[in-house]
Each structure stands twice: as structure tokens, then as C-alpha cells.
Specification:
The structure is a single chain. By secondary structure, the chain is mostly beta strands. The chain has one domain (about 1-49): Rubrerythrin, domain 2, CATH 2.20.28. Helices cover about 0% and strands about 60% of the residues. It has no helices and four strands. The chain has strands at about 1-10, 15-20, 30-35, 40-49. The protein has a four-stranded antiparallel β-sheet with strand order 2-1-4-3, with no helix packed on it. InterPro entries: Ribosomal_bL33 (IPR001705), Ribosomal_bL33_CS (IPR018264), Ribosomal_bL33_sf (IPR038584), Ribosomal_zn-bd (IPR011332). Pfam families: Ribosomal_L33. One of its GO terms (biological process) is translation.
Length: about 50
């Protein structure tokens, strides 16, 4: 079952991206390096609640 999740920047905590993931196959929190327009560089984005 796919669930909609929000990704937040690890440095400035701004919520920049939304995506979906299959929670039955990937139960751990997602971490992806993406571009943060607030910081102006690529940073680590983590899944939020």
C-alpha cells in the first residue's frame, strides 16, 4: 500500500518535497539528497510524520 510522505531538509527543516512510498516493503524512514531552495544547495532530506 502506497502512502504519501513529506520530505524535510535536515539543515533548515523546510518541507520541500512530497512523494509516495510502499510502507509494507520499506518500513524505515526515507533519506534522500535533494536540492533545497531555502539553503541554496543539495542537502539531506528526511521523511517527516
Amino acid at each position: 500500500m502506497n502512502k504519501k510522505i513529506t520530505l524535510a531538509c535536515a539543515i533548515c527543516s523546510s518541507r520541500n518535497y512530497t512523494t509516495s512510498k510502499n510502507v509494507s516493503t520499506k518500513p524505515v524512514r526515507m533519506e534522500v539528497r535533494k536540492y533545497c531552495k531555502t539553503c541554496g544547495k543539495h542537502t539531506l532530506h528526511r521523511e517527516t510524520k
